């Protein structure tokens, strides 16, 4: 097929715009803040689960404090009652008094154990509260970090999107007057993963360092400049640049 040489040369400019557009789109999809933001969101979710665990631990610790306190109070009340009887001694002989003292001593052992349990329960509450406070503080920092990352990412993407739209507008204006069949060949090559269009210079070198056989290069140089040459090796249109 044939196409005006000016259209073929313009196709190189279209390819340059497409290269810029693709570069910007890669910058968008591979923006480091996307990875950082995803990591922050995962940390927030993980910290949220940690907070839930700490809250459950704290609830259990508070329940233990109540139960331990009740046990301590119960044993203390028993001791108080028995000591009052011992002090009074009313209606008891020496053997009964000794037995009562033994009961008091045993109760004091139970009281000591109950108080240890009470103290351990209070320590557990303190530890759970500290862990919960720490996790909540980290969550607050992470939430702030997420907002900042998201805001910066949105700002960067807005700039990239605007630049892409500007390039697409320029591309559309550049493509509009070109030969439709020529453009279709270019788009088909790109859709297949080909180069679309390759510039070949008079000295035989090409854009992107692609090698074209001497026979093919000679055919392009010596042919009608309006002939559209398609390289079978690269599934791309080859345009002789700087044609005189």
Straight-line N-to-C gap: 21 Å
Number of strands: 3
Largest sheet, strands/sense/barrel? 3 strands, mixed
Helix content: over 70%
User: Which word captures the global form?
Assistant: rod-shaped
On the 0-100 scale, what is the average pLDDT? 92
Number of alpha- plus pi-helical segments: 5
Q: Please, how many domains?
A: 2
Low-confidence stretches: none
What is the strand content?
A: 5-15%
CATH class descriptor of the largest domain: Mainly Alpha
Label the structural class.
mainly alpha
The CATH topology of the largest domain comes to Helix Hairpins
Query: For the largest beta sheet, what order do the strands appear in spatially?
Result: 1-3-2
Question: What is the radius of gyration?
Answer: 42 Å
CATH architectural designation of the largest domain:
Orthogonal Bundle
* N-to-C series of helices and strands: HHHHEHEE
Summary of the model, kept short:
InterPro entries: CT398_CC_hairpin. This protein is mainly alpha-helical and 244 residues long. Helices cover 76% and strands 5% of the residues.
Please give a structural write-up.
Helices cover 76% and strands 5% of the residues. By secondary structure, the protein is mostly helical. It has a three-stranded mixed β-sheet with strand order 1-3-2, sandwiched between helices. A hairpin with a 4-residue loop joins strand 2 and strand 3. The protein is rod-shaped, with a radius of gyration of 42 Å.
């Amino acid at each position: 097929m044939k196409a005006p040489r000016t259209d073929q040369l313009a196709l190189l400019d279209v390819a340059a715009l497409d290269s810029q557009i693709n570069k910007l789109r890669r910058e968008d999809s591979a923006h480091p803040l996307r990875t950082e933001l995803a990591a922050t969101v995962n940390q927030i979710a993980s910290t949220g689960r940690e907070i839930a665990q700490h809250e459950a631990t704290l609830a259990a610790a508070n329940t233990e404090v109540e139960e331990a306190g009740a046990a301590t109070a119960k044993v203390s009340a028993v001791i108080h009652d028995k000591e009052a009887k011992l002090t009074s001694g009313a209606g008891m002989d020496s053997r009964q008094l000794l037995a009562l003292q033994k009961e008091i001593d045993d109760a004091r052992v139970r009281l000591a154990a109950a108080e240890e349990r009470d103290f351990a329960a209070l320590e557990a509450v303190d530890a759970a509260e500290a862990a919960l406070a720490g996790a909540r503080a980290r969550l607050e920092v992470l939430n702030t970090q997420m907002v900042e990352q998201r805001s910066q990412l949105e700002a960067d993407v807005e700039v990239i999107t605007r630049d892409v739209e500007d390039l697409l507008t320029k591309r559309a204006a550049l493509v509009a007057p070109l030969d439709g069949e020529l453009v279709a060949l270019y788009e088909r090559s790109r859709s297949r993963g080909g180069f679309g269009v390759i510039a070949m210079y008079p000295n035989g070198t090409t854009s992107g360092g692609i090698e074209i056989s001497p026979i093919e290069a000679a055919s392009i140089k010596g042919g009608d400049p309006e002939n559209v040459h398609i390289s079978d090796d690269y599934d791309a249109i080859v345009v002789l640049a700087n044609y005189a």
